[in-house]
Fold these 2 entries.
Entry 1:
Amino acid sequence: MSQTLRQTKGGRIDRSRTIRFQFDGKTHKGFEGDTLASALLADGVKLFGRSFKYHRPRGVMAAGIEEPSALVGAGTAGRYEANTRATDLFIYPGLKAVSQNRWPSLGLDLLSGISLISPFIPAGFYYKTFFGPPKLWMVYEHFIRMAAGLGKAPKVADKDGYEHRAAFCDVLVVGSGPAGLAAALAASASGAKVILAEQDRELGGSLLTDAATIDGQASDEWIAAATTSLLAKGGRILTRTTAAGFYDHGLLNLIERVTEPGQAPGADGLAQRLWRVRAGQVILATGALERPRLFAGNDLPGVMLSGAVRTYLNRYGVRTGQKVVLTTDNDDAYRTALALAEAGAQIVAILDSRAASAAGNSLSLRRAQTRLPVHFGAKLIAAKGSAKGVKSAKALIDGQITNLVCDLIAVSGGFSPVVHLHMQAGGTLSWNETTGAFSPDISRQNQTTAGAASGADGLGQTLTSGWEAGLAAAKALGLKGSSVKTPPACAEADDQVCRSLADWLPAPQTNLKKAFVDYQNDVTAADLDLAWREGYRSVEHMKRYTTLGMATDQGKTSNLVGLARLALAEGRPVPSVGLTTFRPPYTPVTLGVLAGEHTGAHLSPRRRPVLYQVHAAQKPIWQPVGYWHRPRAYPQGREDLHQSAHRESLAVRTKVGVTDVSTLGKFDVVGPDAAAFLELVCATTVGKLAVGRGRYTLMLREDGMVMDDGTVWRVAENRFFLTSSTGGADRMSAHLSYVRKVLAPQLKVTVANVQEHWAAAAIAGPLAKAVVENLMGEGAAPRHMSLGFGPLAGIPTMILAASYSGERAFEIYAPSHQIGPVWDAIVEQARGLGGCLYGLEALEILRIEKGHIVVGGEIDGRATADDLGLGKMLRPSGGFVGATALGRPAMSDPQRLQLIGLEAISGTIPEGSMLITAKGAVPCGHVTAAGMNVVQGGSIALGFLQGGRARLGDVLTATSPTRKQAAQVKVVAPVFYDLAGDQYRD
Amino acid sequence: MIDTQMLKRVTPETGRLIRFEIWSDADACLDRLAKALGTELPQTGKSANAGDLRLVWLEPMTWLVRAPEARGAAVLARIEEALASDGGACDISGALVRTRITGPAWRTLLTIGGVFDAEADTFGPGCMAATVIAHAPVRLDVISKTEIDAYTPPSYAPDLFEFWDHAAARLNLQAR
Amino acid sequence: MQSYSALNLFRRGLGGHKSWTRAWRDPAPKSHYDVIIIGGGGHGLATAYYLAKVHGIKNVAVLERGWIGGGNTGRNTTIVRSNYRQPALHNLFEFSLKLWEGMSDDLNYNVMFSQRGALFLGHSDSDMIRLAERGDAMRCMGIDAELMSKAQLRKLIPLLDMSDEARFPVVGGLIQPRGGTARHDAVAWGYARAADALGVDVIQNCEVTGMDIRGGKIVGVKTTKGDIGADRVGICVAGNSGQVAAMADLRLPIESHLLQAFVSEPVKPMIDTVIMSQSIHCYISQSDKGEIVLGGDPDMYPTYSQRGRPDRIEEVAGQAIALIPALSRLRMLRSWAGTTDMSFDGSPIIGKTPVDELYLNGGWCYGGFKATPGSGWLYAHTLAKGEPHALNAPFRLDRFETGATIDETGAGPMPHHR
Amino acid sequence: MLLIHCPHCGPRAQAEFVFERPLESIIQIDEALPDLIPKLYSRVNPKGPSWELWRHTYGCQSWLKLHRDTHNHTIHAVLEIGQTPEGGDA
């Protein structure tokens, strides 16, 4: 392509660096510095995409982030970004962009036929039709879903990197136009640590379109000097970085596009970065956005915002039209007209809706009046043309309808200050009836607004307001005054004012059904009127009923136009009809950058036991337990999980097994009041425990339910060791701290979380004692529920004789960093005696057989100690957390779910199945854990049954309809092995 | 635009870590501890050297002492004696893994995936801070302008160290 | 009421749609009503509709502080399902789900209830057992639930990450085929229009500022539009229940927390079902417009601010990408926050208060939207009869005092542990 | 995300803290049932200033009393356990 509309010189593009890219499969050339929009416009491309609902042809309307129409898919495979604004995508070599929402092609979009039935599908039409059974709606919906959506759905995982980084500063300046630069300079000169964030690829904002002379320098030089000065004072300048969200207490999320959409990252692999900035003061210099105007066909390719037309010309050297009609309510559009005329375009007419007497007197306007066809009190009625662009305009000039031949319509409906971040921060707005603009009023955080965003008009005001905001921010932080005393001054102060006079009324002849307010979502003025007629009169109702402002441009150009239409219908001033809420993000933000590193395999921490690598060498089956990963079984040869677990559990029952119990919750409780403290958290008797002895215990929640279980050991008179479940360890740690620090601050006790200090191996089975004594000497094995100490493999260890499996068992504890040799010695010894490693699955089988409860199984947060058959363990005197709440009547309801055992009469009991008395009956309980009788075989289970303890001997069905399994079961006491507990003891 | 030199992460030799807490008669107890350890205990948010011991404030009225492994038992005994019945001590040597990060860009590294201002001028040598980085609880002890110790529970360490290695590699690439 | 149909849309379209009139009136309050509902959200409007339709009580006003549907009705992720484990809960939500199935026709307003299935993913064998348990509990009560294998999931959601390297590898799921989503705003509008047609006064911009309680009995409310008498008053303002109940000197087992949600930019269909997970607390669906709708855990501390913490959104984004890696380059377009009534067992409260003739419907935590029709129907029943229906009897306010709590997750009384 | 001025650690992000409960619902272990029920199961749930218990879980692990506005999130005071505010009860 030939870049036919590119000017031979001028602009900020680097004509020496040609960049090749593709749009819809066709190769184009642009220059370094081009956006996709500017490069394609230079090539004469007018049609960029299709609208959401009616598939109307759309071109480029804007030159920045507010673009509603020119959306493309950028990049391929995992880097494909749908709905990318062509105006906010700087081209790079190899860029592949495709148009959207058309089939089969952009030029020939068969779905554009929808436009023909548009009279019958106005706003909210879907609420009024498609009735019938839900199945029928599903049929309609299928086609609606296919027609809706914009870009193609992504299909491939994204391999690029995203990073989150925290940053802190005295003053954050958002926006690097003249106001932002002046603010940053003033704050920096006052000694503030400054971060300056700019969404564009270079600093300057409006100065990139409209060069000026500031402090006697060309604006480019002034920007360069400002940059140097800010960096020299330790400031941080972030380009291509958008402040997307303003949260509480001075926190902003900035999104840095390290690469352009679809672009391959550099060596560091980083695509985007999220800066989490906490700022002492924030200055918003976010500028203002130009608004379109209401006339029929205002969405045609070739209808563009006036400022955008000037930006394409001045910044990118692209003249977007040859015969131009301008329609405006302000002086700014005259600058566009003059620039176009100077570039050789023919200005067909300037339609100024202001009366001659109300127009401004800027230099531009005066110059235009002398040489261009300016019409005051004039409006556009309609633009006419096709997907190929505008061909003519119908205007109302001096009361006469006039047809104007043109190929570009430049529109200016005034300017809306960008108040989004101010509003996100909780601020309020004030309304200027003359300019038809909301600007910031009260700030709720340490935040001010400067420049056009604050309603400043003209470069002079803009520079001054920025400078003053910078000084004020520094002052508020208690910094010394600035060394520089005067604000930057510009030569063109008088010229760059626009004096908007808001005029919301379209020409009376306008066909409102073709006058678009929200371009992307195809919301017309007629739609808004219909919504109002039907009673959707709250601004939120109107938005939600018509979808006004809910497109990817978030209503940046449409919201105020729509609001004004509503105000007109209501006969009330704009501010009284209210505003929809401003919420993050300011512009759409990829989910990838929001997630940062924390997705995929790194979604959440994977906590590894200290022996992780040792286990990994055995190639176990792993099991997630909360954040932890623990071995579930150690299959040998071709064993599956169940075969392995059965072999392991059988080894424990008949010989000896070793398992890693390092992840258990563990606490050192030390001090003269240690026993008193433990009696507050443990529901069982602790104080009477002899030194060297331990016992099983329960901890309750304040509502009386069992929270966790564990063992408590008296290591010395004033030193206890408390264990609790792995999954509940963090909760237990917080609970102990709460009781210690909040409820019992007077106690002389320290509670240290030593969960990870100690690692431990449990040795269980008839030969467990032999393992211990072989390793540590005759008499080294403590009797059941006693503890001992001694070196093993040269490492000092602690031995707790406790059993979860039901066999004689020992837990041998060593400091985590020293556990390796201890573990190896134990495993070697156990193997030598015919034993093996066992994992969580075997442990589960063993504990079910023994009727031992587990957190997350029977301890489900809904069970009391009595429900679990442990009521008798509770200290009758009370005085522990949870004791009082047990006095509520429902806690002793005989029909509560109570723990019972189940033996299969026929079939295998499905875990998690429902207990029923007959087919079709309401379940009266459920199976919490199912296993087998390790030695004899046979399906057994634990479960909860309403009033279960009174129902021993009942025959029920354990049914699992989802798995099509069932078993006939007999209700028994919840213990299936060694009722007397003989196996525990020597 | 990051000014950095190569970042290195070094996992040092393990030492003995002792956590102790004072619950009563604080002034006298602090005096006894100062005598026992040869220096005043560091103030809130601070750390200090005492001969071959590193003392780190942990929580209100709670400190961490890092001692050479060989002297661990003796130091623990000395602390327990000084605490008497006004406080308690526990060996937590296995509960934390210490890693030393060297290179001037450690400050930048620690802002990645974090919420703490590691770049603050006031966070200099002899300062400690506890925070959360990449979901892991971390205690930081600034050793010098170019060195910082990070303590983290061993179960979180593999993920966190991998995270830091990746982030450091990126920083080193960007610095070139 | 103007009838809605394709034919009428065509007819009135010929006239440029100029002849459509208000969907509901904008009446001034009368001096007295049989029943006043405080709160014009989906639940309140549904209550008024069923009072009029089922019980013939038509002298009813719904008082709304702002615009109807402006609370949590318009701030949720539009998910409808009844796949709860606890019997009282799945019975309540299943009753509601059945009403959803006939709602569009009943109201002559298309609420776009779309039964594309509500899926819970399981990431371990123990997840799968818990899911099977839930499914079995439901199936025993005649509620649809089916376990899904990995192969079935791969077919249902081809973009799901099924790799073993995932932090939480997908091993299966439990789907409720009748679950799905609905167009949230339409529910409020549809009920308002249908209730209005039966004579109910829907009064917007009418804030209740006080309660007229005499001798322990409520006889009316004070509002910004004047005092209004009533035989019976129903509070239905989830999110602000505590504030309104305080006007009657009541303290509730409710804390107000904040729940955020957000949508991506619209793309062509990529996810058909509602995706939730047993281990990862996020939920994902795709709206008819093509936006991916995402939500997760609440912000975990009391607030009325409707200003969410960004790290929560970031967490949900990470979770969503972990499940569906292709979501990474989609962009968050809009985010919002709702104030949720967090009750102290995670279950709602529908029933009497200690004040005579004053009733409460609240405590919906973050699960109220799906209950809209059922909640309205049962609350209407309770208000009409003065006694709860068997389905909402377990959800009485005094259950905390007696200990008969209904704790689906077993998390106990602190809302932020849930 | 709030910025909470920990009396020990200085200003820190909310991500390091965990909300526990309003101070009014702290239940002593020997609390009688008629007192426990309202403390455990009812709340003023104010829309405005509220005294709350938080913990600097990922920092110094202290329990802190926050006087915080639940509507606009202003934090008026952060006290240590055992400290009481001037002129107020917490």
Note: The longest strand of chain B covers residues 136-144.
Entry 2:
Amino acid sequence: MSKMKSVKIDRRSFLKMLGWGGAGTALAGCDLPTTVTLEEGKEEVVSYLMPEEYVIPGIGVWYASTCLQCDAGCGLHGRVREGRVLKLEGNPDSPINHGKTCMMGQAGVQAHYNPDRVTSPMLRKNGTLQAVSWDEALSELNGRLGAVSGDRFAMVTGTVSGHQAVLVSALMEQMGSSNHFAHETINARVWRQVCEDMLGDPMPRLRLDKAQVILSFGADFLGTWLSPVHMATEYAKFRSAPRGMLVQIEPKMTLTGGNADLWLPARPGTEGALALGIANFVIERGWNKVNVTPNVRRALAEYDLPKVEEITGIPVSKIKRIASLLSERSPALVLAGASAAGFEDGYESVAAAMLLNIIVGAVGETIEASAQFPEAALLARQGSTADLIKFAKGLENKAFDVVLFANTNPVYTAPEALGLEKGLAEVGFKVAMTQFPDETAMLADLVLPLASPLEDWGTHVAAYQAGGDPVISVQQPLMEPIHKDVRGFGDVMLGLLKARNKEFEQFADYYAYLKTAMLNMPGLADKDNKNDAAWNNLLQKGLLSAKPAKGKLSIKAHTVEVAGYQHSKEYPLHLVPSARLGLWDGRHANIPWLQEAPDQIAKVVWDSWAELHPKTAHELGVKNGDIIRVSSASGSIETQVYIHKGVHPDVVAVPMGQGHTAYGRYAKNRGANPLKVLNPITDKKTGELATHATRVKVSKVPRKNILVKMGGSETQMGRPLVRTVSADQFRRTEGEG
Amino acid sequence: MQFANRTSLNNAAAVSIRRLQAKLVQCGKPFYLLMALAVMALLPLTAMAELPVPSHITPPPGEHEGEHVPQPIEFPHDRHVKDMKINCMYCHTYARRSKVAGIPPTSKCMGCHKVIATDRPRIQKLTEYWEKGESPRWKKVHDVPDYVHFTHEKHIRKFVFDADFPVEDVQQVCGVCHGEVREMTVAEKKKPLNMGFCRRCHEANGGPGDCWKCHK
Amino acid sequence: MSFKNILENFSKYRRGAEEGGHHEYEHRWGMAIDLNLCIGCNACSTACYAENNLAVVGKDKFEKGQAMHWMRIERYWDDADAGRDFPEQGALFLPMLCQQCGAATCEPVCPVAATYHTPDGLNAQVYNRCIGSRYCNNNCPFRVRYFNFWSYYESSWPEPLNMQLNPDLSVRDKGVMEKCTFCVQRIRTAKDKAQRENRAIVDGEFQTACAQACPTGAIVFGDTMDPNSRVTKLWQEHEVERGPYTSKKPKQNAELRGYRIFEELNVDPSIMYLERVRETEV
Amino acid sequence: MAQVIQDKIIDENLKWSQINQDVIRSMQAPGKAYWITFAVCVAMFLTAVAAEIYQYKVGMGAAGLNNPHMWDMYIATFVFWIGMSHAGTLLSAILHIIHAQWRKPIYRFAEAMTTFSLMTAGFFPMIHLGRVWNLYWVLPYVSDRGIWPNFRSPLVWDAFAISTYLSASALFLVIGMIPDLAILRDHTKGWRKKFYGILALGWRGDDRQWRNFRKTYMLMACFLIPLAISVHSIVSSDFAMSIMPGWHVTTFPPYFVAGALYSGCAAIMTLFICLRYFFHMEEYMTKNIMEKTTKLTFAIAMVWTYLNLIEFASTWYGHNIYDKEVLISKATGPYAVVFWTMIICGSVVPFTLCFQKLRRHMPTMFVVSLLLQLGMYVERWMIVAPTLSQAHQPHQWDVLWAPVVQWAIVFGSFGWFALLFLVFVKLFPSVSMYEVKELTFHLQHEAEEEKWLADQEKHATPEGAREKPVTGRPGLEGA
């Protein structure tokens, strides 16, 4: 152990910051250049205590780590210079992101250097949170944990995987509690369930690169679905000659919709019916590659095209065209995401899409069995809103005495109707482990400041394993903690475990635990750890491939029953809480780069907005920038109008991410949070929150806002800036692939 | 090139005047005026550096009377360079590899000073730092503006390695910009290190003339 | 640039003004941006913020049009959408950054020569030479130059955000024009490294931050003078050539996708765009 | 013949001592109205100074500029003031060369206007610079850094042109005043005597001095005319040298010069009426002179209108889509009100000058002259802003209305100009005494000659040939 400790010191000492006193920050032209810069003795310069072999001041070095901005698990390379991490790039070795990142990944440094981090433990005394020492905080926490028994203890996390998941389960085991809730608002829980039920694999690999036509029912795979960066890299192959075709059916144009060849808004919640109608038509014409059981066939026959048109509002001709495309341009791939799944019968809608996949022969062609990571204990405990609802139920029943939140902010993301805040008030002791002063932390009795992902150790197993071989990727710190008084998530968990189980005392800290654990993984040959070669290789590469526990897909097509469309007089519109690549579910609202980055479609910055179709806006008599009140049965929000044609006329779409009441200077009191007004409707099968099922009415508020967006003209004014060419010509000149 | 014959006095005066103007604009204290005048008056008295200049370098004219910057430890360059004959790059190891020459890691100092001269107050101060596990916070003396990209590595390569200049005499090359460090305790700025100085040297020695080579 | 220099090189200097740029280039950095692959996700733009110390201006200043995004994704709706209920063909995305024109219109108008053409084929902007007359952006048809209307250092990088600042390039203060540099700090590092190792720069050895980040690989960056570079091959494949625009020039194969924006203004941009592909049959 | 007498520029029977008296009276200790005006001007100027200090401190963002609109009212105002300076040169130099007698009572304040509007214009390139403290980098000075300004840039030409023009026109003004200053030296006491004594440069009014004076003055006039025309051509190249639609216009130099003369003449009309009214100079600034000025203004207005139409036509038929769209947007877009203000004030309002009744009605002329200047101001703004609002890249299209800081500085520039002018009229003779004397002498001579000729015809010398009137040398006899 002592040896390990010394190793650790060596490993970490390069992270020490050098000479931070203004390096790279003096301004060109702040003043007369001669005054500022030709002065001697203004800046400081500091050397390392010990020479570091690979660290030369003035030269940047890249270290591998893992991105934690969402749960896709992309590999990272971070550029470190003078002990500061400056820039993140993708790890080219990662089969997930192939060296690429999304905007959120790029902004990881701003989460790390965020000026609004929690810098010391805080304990609620006389009603207010006050800074305390870690010793005091932990003794308080251990005392509370000691006093609670079994299921009275609950832990709420986001998606958690790798060795952190192991520690979480260990803690739950030690506490004798089964109440671990993993909460993610943006998830693919319903898709997973459908895949599990119909294909026997919860997360099959989707081969976008092989597909020639993709029909997506609201799956924003380029933006927010499953593993966006990976999907985008695959999309590039899909779009290269001979170029596949993308059809997107969704009530509000997402980033993926913006790139579709055909974008159609079906009436919200009728995607299932549309899928069934297409399936019916495909079978009718005999285009199906796989035959279905007579039961299924009978059920499908109900969905003749005129009826489907009536339900979905999509003309028969278009439906026929889509159906013929699916057969002409095989292999096809049908996806279904949030806007199809977010209803009471969401499961059925997604199942209908999957049925279509089966019928057109996508399964086995473009849908392959997943490369499951072999170590079950390390697999991701994937977050869902079902867990949040379960947790809320528990709160309602006053089932918990101590609740431990880690890296999650349910107080912000939970709909008002779940009564989370009220329920939490009844809980004896609430602990928030977080980097930022978020809404949950503001309600907590104890706040434990966590190290940022770029300061912490960890391992991650992505839920969606993109490559042929599954990987576990390593998260290593890229610099020493900026704030002295923060601790890694693993370290805190290990500390809690040590207090309960002597077994864990052999590990000095989480790093030691992780290293021991990883070196025992099959695949790291150097078991006796000579010169740390295997370990160093692992850190250098950033990930470890394993032999896949390959399953086989077994098709179980069954009948699907989707509900018809119901009009509502009182609440005529549907609320679509759209997910944004950027602010995600609101966790990145405190990152200035992401606030300033315009929304990909609306191009609005620093605020939220309600997208309305010009027709709807005309009926309501509102213009861009007018404030409207969006009211559901569970509450109301006010936000500015943004009019464009990329929404269904029955829809008001408000993006998630804003409307924080805490969370630092960049996020606080900015915009509105659509999640708050969602009705507590759940998907019947999975218990997921039906995010798109809330009906709302909209009324004008006599106030106006200046809609702050990028770009002067909405069209090119006939100027040939973005030129287009037909796909036929493209295939002629650049080949059939 | 037409400036190459300019006397160092003129040049230094020009620099001083610019500094003076700049300072006056910045704070307008008559103090600076007096100081600049004093510097100007003293300039003719300044003895020229005696350090031999390598024959393959045409040194740019230009002198500067740097302030004596108080450092955490009054490090005696003269002792190390002149008396001990230690090569510049023994301590400033990064000069041939990186933009910056680098301050030696404290362990390097301690490599000798665990045993040598341990009774001296400066060494005791150094030992104190070492035992605390800290490095002294030195003040930068030779500093170029942050919009300037200067790299030691290229200059050392051109004037030492590519020119087959004996590495043991490297201080002559360093001295072109750093002055006669062997006569100083802590480093003092002896050359103006402003754009005119750089440009004159680049013109005389065939350095690049493209703005973006040095400005960032 | 002394008197002597001016006298000796005057004809070259003058010709540069007329014909644009240098005549003996060391490199000519260029790009090819495939609009068929660009999904408009903003990864490049954010990467640019991270790499190039771009200031975050905040909502009020963004509203005034003072944002500093060197790389911006322009989103256009189809002109044909005006007659439709929905934008059925999606949006049109255009990554717009400095085109590093060979005959850049920004260069001749700068009164202090703060912007000039480098032997690498780049439009350099020397920040500390800039006096802020802003003529360059007025004369830029792409409007890709950004002026520091305010001092952003305090507001944009409150501690410890300023620790992220890239020391390889300066932080610009108020009154200075700035623009995309094709990540000249990366070019510089790569050139230094190649020189140290006594070799030519290998294609793909380094990339600009935007090209590196782009998830679909829509942006290809490289030396258009290196015959083996990916970008040169793309330019050749699409029969796009450098140099002034003439209508007499044998028209490239009309079926090919390569084009340069505003080429008819004779600015000789260094970025070739590839046309967005549209399915016509849906 | 009767026409000649009716049309006379000025009453030729004015006594020279009366002229001296009248002009010196105008320079006497100012009254209440003067001080109030002065205070208003100072207030305007100080507001501008405050705005500029604020802008200097926080950056150009204070002026509300943004990415497409890198320039706005500062540049428009700069062009306006430069333009205004042209009429002084025109009146003084061109009319001097072509011996237009009627210029003599009014050229002095017009020349002062030239100098002062240049002094005002000179501020604007500085105000508009992002880093004004480095302004001197525009000048080619020998520097330690060995770098030079970019001689290809029209902004550098501007720097040369403006500084040359300012020094030349200031010199012209001062030289032209020397005989008057000598008069003042001889008629004043105390500090004024000393002051004028220094400025009069030892003028005694002897023949050699007069001869040299006239030669110098003529030479300066000849030098100034091409200079003035080139200055505004260079200012126009700030726009014409760019490739922006609406700026890249080859007819800009003459268009700018015409516009400059136009606004300058209008300004002369305004100042003419002010001086006439406030200093009771009705005898010097007669309605006849006014009429001649207005006729000149009308002619220039028509030239300007013609060039304007030429520009529109060439844009229209040139079929450059970008140019055309900018033009259409000017007339129909968000700036349409401003555009039509410009057309009406610049091309329609001048038709009032066709009517003699109106021409001789001073209040009307005052209003008209202000309208013309408004038209010319918005013309400059219509050149700068709409092009920037709607150039090649539609993504960067925007509409900008200047915020308060810009307005404060622009208004302040009027305050500054007026301030200079107010100081001038109290320190220097705003009417050229010696030239008015010259004029009366000539007129007398002319009248007498006419009379003599008429008499000759009528009476065929019954009382014998009357002697021709004695011609004396005009000049300083009265001084």
Note: The longest helix of chain A spans residues 134-147.
